[in-house]
Amino acid sequence: ETIEKFEKEITKKFTFEERKAMNLCTLDNYCIFIASRYFDSLDDHINLVKVSKRMRGNLEKFHYNPISVNEESVQLFPNVESLHLYDERDEYLEGGRIERYVEWDPVSYYYSEEMNKGKEIEFKNVVWTKDDTEIEYKKQNPDCNAYFDFELTIPEGVNELEEDCFNEYRFSLK
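Above: the chain sequence. Below: its structure as tokens.
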């Protein structure tokens, strides 16, 4: 009897007055769009679209991909202009409206410089590595194989230093 009563309560349709009395409200499309920016998976987005007809346009509102996508799933976000790459497995996709890329996984400074040639890429997590130090040293001392003193200026945009990235070098930081 208790289970039947519970099932009736769950399936009961409330009138507007009853919902108002219980202070039940609905989220408007904009609020749902904002909340959906924090979904973790493609399934979450697909399930939202399945909820009601008014949710069908939610994926078209995104001008970036809020989750990792591939060649197939990027088509669910037809208005993507900025393709975000969240980890090293994400691919640089081309076509459609994609104008720029934003990469969130850690990359070395010289990798970010090399990748930025010919593409509009914003790197959010640039790490100065031991390899970067070696490249910079060889630029300043092209004919020398020994590690001598040299001057180093950490470039703008680097937001992390790899552990031991300055090992074996003596230099002055600027």
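The helical segments are 2-11, 16-21, 29-36, 42-51, 109-115, 130-140.
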